[in-house]
Amino acid sequence: MVDFANGMVRAGRRLGPQAVLRRLAAAAALWLVSLGLGPGARAESFAWSTPTCISAAPCTQVGSVSRYPNVIAPADLAAAGNRNRDLLVTIVSTTGGATMSQAPSAGAGYLQGQVLLPGTAPNASQVVFRLDFVQPGTTTPDPLAVPVYLRSIDTDGNESSITGGVTERIEFMPPTVTVIAGAQLEPTGALDGGIAYRAAACTTVNAAIGCLAVGNYPTYSLASAPASVAAEANYNAGVSTMTFAFGGEVPAAGSGGSVNLPRLFGMQGGVIAAPNMTSQVVVTPTLAGAGAGVSGSLVCRNAGTTAATDASCTVSAVDSTGAAVTVTVGACTASSGSAASLPVGATLTCPISYTQPGVADSGSDALPTAVSLTSNTGATNEPLGSTGDNSGSDSVATVDALDDGGTSTPAGSAASVNVLGNDQVGTGAVTTGNVSLTVVTAATSGSSFDAATGQFSVPATAAVGSYTVTYRICANPAQTPAACDQATATITVTEGPDMTSAVNIVPTQAGPGSVVSGTLVCSNVGAAAATAATCTVSGLDSTGASVPVTVGACTASAGSVASLPAGATLSCPIEYTQPGASGGADTAATGVSFSSTSSASNEPASATANNSGSDSVATVDALDDGGTSTPAGSAASVNVLGNDQVGTGAATTGNVSLTVVTAATSGS
User: Residue 562: beta bridge partners?
Assistant: First the structure.
């Protein structure tokens, strides 16, 4: 529609301003019937009286605010909480070069204003407006508790999309629930994040819908066909702000003349006189153990302005994997009336129940972590624009205690596990802050369980075997009914490391002062790796004196001394000097005894009996024979082995071999 002040251009003639206003008012009434809404589908429209510019005048600039006082019509006051509202109209922004050329004013039952489009082609431009419901005389928001509508009643165009013209556009921004567009409107690209429509070019010649030629934009007589170029946004109860943009689009062929660039718009609005069903599903508490029975309530309310016919009230549920959960709905009770005709403000309340997925107290993982419930309601006479708040939701998370069976430790090594570590409340971790912990079956003797922390432990001294505790977790703070689950934790003590040692010196006899070598071998004959393994040897002679033994670098057959695997060995070369000195003097020490030992920091006490080994080396000791004499003429003899020793035993031709070092003196 073009500028009212200059008259409306149609079919080569101008209509005066009063004629335009009369036809616009008539169009508003016809629009309801032609769109199929029927009588009474809309309450009286907002009472649009002359606004006051409460910001810098004129109210054509971005940021300016116009106040429309007491916009709630008398017939709608009861639905609006028996209090009126002012409506503040703010020019929020401009897009594409459009400007506000006429400040917001009041028409016959509508808000009107004029937007001036730029002459560039092609171009899409608009001005964004925000409408805020406030307490009278203030800027304090005051939402309406009933659904409302806002409707553009003259989104048409002029001239041709082919040879030049203009098509108007309307865009509704969130939080619109539903936008209903007339048959001669088509979707167009949003410029400010909303849902946008424009007048479509005519595809046929039909004067009834303002199409005088194919390719023309519809230009209509307001008294005959306004519904084809009208668009309405419906808002749920509780709305405090409505935002829309009005403007136009110029095709590549141009605007068809500057007379087409000023575009006057009219916006009508009011309370939707219809039922508005809302629903809510409430499950208390919001936690449940796996396999537990859960109950709650389903409440459906008529928050509209007329009775709801054949009101429905249903609920469905899915678990966190997407699988359906069966919900049982009991008989619904109406607070007044019945489901067949539910009065304004009345509710249907229905008991519901279902079973939380999983097996109770099994200790197994209840794979679904929660159940989501969705309520839904409706009425056969509820308009499409009031269905956006039909649904409600609630959810119940699963308290899930899981068995702990993966902990094992070799004997000699302490182990512990926090039983809460793999438990869950929904998708979150379990802590001593969100669950309470009690013992169902006491910890096996030799192990310990701290119910304050959830720590289950076996000491390093624990014997080989299996240790368990069965526990129960319940939601904290406590709920009614309680949300609990139980599980069992197990720690298995296996055979630990077992270190043995052996010292090997070959041969087992040595002369005084000789250097003797051998091998020290320490083995892990247990079932688990030995931690910080040791391998040592010491020596003592037969008099009890210490004999220094040099131990070389030890070689591990696998792993290392830090962690010596089961079956691995440490082999170490050793060396020492046999006590005494060769040359015939008596060596007091008759031999050397060696003691080896091995250990590991995690070796259980029960495995230490075989830590030690031993070996010995006897001394071969030839002693000078100087005590034999005889007078001349008397023969004499001595057996040189008579005072010699091998260890503590006598030397004989059976245990020693005898060779001459210096030949006997001549004559002997």
Answer: none
| The amino acid at 579 | P
Q: State how far the Cα of 450 lies from the Cα of 586, in Å rounded to an integer.
A: 70
Q: How many CA atoms lie within 13 A of 545 on its CB side?
A: 10
Nearest to 402 by CA among 371, 435, 450: 435
The one-character DSSP state at 463 is P
Where does 515-643 have alpha helices with state H? none
Nearest 5 degrees, angle CA 452-CA 455-CA 458? 135
Tens-place pLDDT, residues 373-412: 999 999 999 887 678 789 999 999 999 999 998 899 999 8
Phi, psi of 105, rounded to the nearest 5 degrees: -145, -170
Q: Which of 45-59, 142-156, 260-274, 336-350 has the highest mean pLDDT?
A: 336-350
| Three-state secondary structure call for residue 259 | helix
Note the pLDDT tens digit of each residue in 633-651.
888 888 887 787 887 888 8
d(CA 96, CA 171): 14
Q: Which CA distances in Å does 59 have to 55, 112, 131, 243, 618?
A: 7, 13, 14, 17, 121
169-203, pLDDT tens digit by residue? 999 999 876 899 998 999 999 999 999 999 999 99
Question: Taking a C-beta distance cutoff of 8 angstroms, is the pair 398, 370 a contact?
Answer: yes
CA distance 28 to 47: 14
Instruction: Give the three-class secondary structure for 607.
Output: helix
Distance between start and end Cα atoms, the chain:
156
Residues of the chain by 3-state class (helix, strand, coil), percent to 5: 5, 45, 50
**Does residue 127 contact residue 115 with C-beta atoms inside 8 Å?**
yes
- Residues β-bridged to residue 490: 468
User: For residue 489, which of 551, 437, 542, 547 has the smallest C-alpha distance?
Assistant: 437
